[in-house]
Amino acid sequence: MRFLSSRRRHPAAKLLLLVAGLFVMGASWAFLAPSQQVSADTNTTQQIAQGKALFAVGCSSCHGLNGEGQVTEHIQGPPLVGVGAASVEFQVSTGRMPMSKPEAQAPVKPTRYTEEEVLALAAFVQSLGPGPEIPTEEMVDPGNLSDEDLSRGGELFRTNCSACHNFEGAGGALPNGKYAPSLRGVSNLHLYEAMITGPQQMPVFSDQVLTPDDKRAIIGYLNTLHAKPNQGGLALGGLGPVSEGLWAWVLGLGIVICFGIWIAAKGAKAR
Prior knowledge:
Blueprint: H1 2-8, H2 13-32, H3 35-58, H4 60-63, E1 70-71, E2 76-77, H5 84-93, H6 115-128, H7 137-140, H8 147-160, H9 162-165, E3 172-173, E4 179-180, H10 188-197, H11 212-227, H12 241-270
Antiparallel strand pairs: 1-2, 3-4
């Protein structure tokens, strides 16, 4: 008993007990920790690797292997570090990227990638540097907005967006061969992503400028506006006074010219 008591009071006993306790805690955590986190990390790593391979084939010729960008006589690929996954999802899933040739503005066209490949490319670019992430379905869903929210969304749209996109989102021309595209038929996800990433000449509307609720209100307003049936009449592209004034001028001036020619011809015959 004296031998056991002396062993228990040995100076190294506390250190051994501490080491043993840490070992037991580590083993317990490794055994009891959920495997979902490990699986999620593995899936993310695989997705980034897939995106990197796709990026090297389809994007690196302009943007560089690591998204550092390239600016030469024939190539103008901006750096992608920090642009975020939302920007990639918007540009690639709408077919704007990759561009087939340098243009004033990348047009919408059928995408070359599947949804899985688009998400992989987005994950790789997101890994290069923090940027806006792809919004969740709840963030872009305007389903529970009130009439007051929709009215506020219309006011926000007319204040911040209508100068380029027209008061009903029909789009319009901009300087230097660029244009604001029509917003009809654009998905809620892409509307939200455009506001947080500022594609091409569009400014970025951060959460400090337009809160997430403001963005949802704008999306809800556009959905409501574009769901309204045509009540009849010639819409003339929905461009408002510009197109209406143009046609009034062309038709009105044309009638006056024709009438003048008719009077002149009649007067010549009378002589």
